[in-house]
Design a protein that fits this description.
globular; mainly beta; single chain; binds copper (II) ion
């Protein structure tokens, strides 16, 4: 992936046809070399009741919607079939909660890279729409993570 100098902080408000889904503050956590998975986070508002049912990205072999939760003080992460987007409500994908999981990464995601990400949104009528985003990558805390934090999906529950 080529680093792109212009960080599109203003990414937002993407409107998909009649479903009117807005995405803001989207970001992907930058990775260290050899890291195979990362997460994408954002705020989504749908004008009508809808569901986020999937996502795709050319940078990842596998993209899933994940839910993270604390069980007995241990972080657990699991794939979910979809995420409800109630009309007019801001649904937040954030570290420690729901996120779009990018796995089987094909290259390192460097800070300021723009990561193409397509969200698949399904309306109540069962119609699906694709939302194409260019999501800026950010290093957590503004510094690159030490390689020692480079762990796999199973063990690194901090992504
Ligand atoms: Cu995950």
């Amino acid at each position: 992936m080529k680093p792109i100098a212009v960080a599109l902080m203003a990414l937002t408000m993407v409107t998909a046809g009649h479903a009117q889904v807005s995405v803001k503050d989207a970001w992907v956590r930058a990775t260290v070399p050899q890291q195979k998975a990362t997460g994408a986070f954002m705020q989504i508002v749908s004008a009508k009741d809808a569901r986020l049912v999937g996502a795709l990205s050319p940078v990842a072999g596998v993209v899933e919607i994940h839910e993270m939760s604390m069980v007995n003080q241990v972080m657990h992460m699991r794939a979910v079939s979809g995420l409800e987007l109630p009309a007019g409500k801001t649904v937040e994908l954030r570290p420690g909660g729901y996120h779009v999981m990018l796995m089987d990464l094909k290259a390192q995601v460097k800070p300021d890279d723009l990561v193409p990400l397509m969200l698949v949104i399904e309306g109540r009528d069962g119609k699906r729409q694709n939302l194409d985003l260019q999501v800026p990558a950010r290093a957590l805390g503004g510094v690159s993570s030490p390689a020692s934090k480079n762990q796999g999906h199973q063990s690194n529950m901090k992504h």
